[in-house]
Write a structure and sequence with these properties.
Length: about 250
Amino acid sequence: MSGMVLALDVRVAYVDADGVPTGGYIGIVNPVTLGVETPEPTRQQRTSRMRDSFGQALDEIVTPGATQITFSTDETGDAEVLGWGLNGEAVNYTQASATATDQPYAVEKGKWFKLAHRAVSALIIEPDGGGTPFVLNTDYMVDPVSGMVKVLDAGAIVTGDVQLSYSAAELTGKKVNAGTRPNIVVRIEGEGINRTNGKPVHVIVPKASLSASGTMDLVGDDFLVTELSGSALKLTGRAPVEVTYLD
C-alpha cells in the first residue's frame, strides 16, 4: 500500500470521431494540472406509498454524470499550445522580402503610422513627388522591428502626403488566430512514476472535448498557463479515463 504523487510526461494528439490520432503527438508538455472530476450521479427512485414503508425507496436507477477533465500547461511558448488557451489556431506566418520605392503614405504630425511590412531597413522619407529627404530622429523616428514610423512634432514633416522607400526582410514563423476554434478534441497520454514508491504509472484520456475560458494576461509577470476544461467522451471498449499501475 502507498499514497500517490505523480510526475508525468504528457503528450497530446488530435483525434477523429473514433478517437484515432490524426497526426503526431504534441509534447512532451509540462502539466500544471490534469484533473478528473466525477460529478454527482442522477438518482431516480421508486418511492413507497404503502403504510408500513411509506417514503422508503423501493427501487433506484443511478445514472452517472459525464466525467469532466481539466488540463493546463505552461508550455505557452509553443504557438500550438498558446492557441489552445485562446480557443484559436496556430498557422504558418510568412513575410516575403520586399523593396518599396517612392510609395505614397498619408501621415499626421505627432502620430505613428504603420508601413506595409515589418523588419524594415534603409527607410527614406521624402516630400510627396520627391525632394530633399527628411532627417531621421529630427523629422521622424522609426521602430524597424514593427515597421512603425512617428512624425515628430518639432520636425519638418507636416500633415499630408509623403513618399517612402525602404527594404523589408523575409520573416517566417507562426501566427495564432484567437477565437477561431471553440474546442479541441484530443487524446491525452501521460507516462510517469508514482513518486512515493517509484513505480511506473500510465494515464490516458482516450478522447476529450476541451475548451479554454477566462483571461490570459499576455503582459503579466507570471508564466502564461493554458487552461482547458471539458468532457471525457466515451469510446467503444474504453473507459473515459484509464490509470494503469505497472509492476
